[in-house]
Structure formats: C-alpha cells, structure tokens
C-alpha cells in the first residue's frame, strides 16, 4: 500500500452556520447573554430561545421548506381553505 502525499489529501469540509430552528434564517442576534447563557432572536420569524442549529446548506433548505409549508398550512386554516 502506497502512502498518499499530504498535498493530495483533500478534506471535504462543509460549512456549518448557526440558523434559527424554526425558519432556517441565519439573521440572528443575541437577545440576552451572560451567566444564564445566550438567548437568540430571529429577525425573520421572531423566534426567541437558547437553541440554534448548526447546519449546512442542505439542512438549511430542509428547515426552510418545512417552515414554508407550515406557513401555507396555517394560512389555509385561517382562511378556511382546508
């Protein structure tokens, strides 16, 4: 078995970013922090909580799609279309 030179080894590193667990938006800001821990606020859906998701592009798209379908479902219920 032959060793592979270091320069030929390519690591598949995905980019993970913190996103809102409700809508998948990355536009979050700290609502509070300190001894009690961080509390995030999502600028898109208004989520406030300590839980955020570190996700890659594929995961983010799945979260966003689920959020969109739930919004459509809620909208249909409120207008009596279902």
In short:
This protein is of the alpha+beta class. 28% of the residues lie in helices and 21% in strands.
What does this protein look like?
The structure is a single chain. The chain has one helix and five strands. The protein is of the alpha+beta class and 82 residues long. The strands form two sheets. Strands 2-3-4 form a three-stranded antiparallel beta sheet, with no helix packed on it. Strands 1-5 form a two-stranded antiparallel sheet. The longest helix is centred in the C-terminal third of the chain and has 23 residues. It is flat. The chain starts with 16 loop residues before the first strand and ends with a helix.
Keywords:
82 residues; alpha+beta; two-stranded antiparallel ribbon; 5 strands; 28% helix
């Amino acid at each position: 078995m032959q060793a592979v030179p270091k320069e030929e080894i390519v690591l598949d590193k995905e980019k993970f970013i913190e996103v809102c667990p409700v809508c998948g938006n990355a536009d979050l800001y700290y609502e509070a922090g300190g001894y009690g821990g961080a509390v995030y606020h999502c600028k898109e859906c208004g989520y406030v909580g300590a839980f955020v998701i570190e996700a890659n592009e594929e995961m983010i798209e799945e979260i966003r799609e689920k959020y969109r379908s739930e919004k459509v479902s809620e909208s249909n219920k409120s207008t009596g279309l279902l």
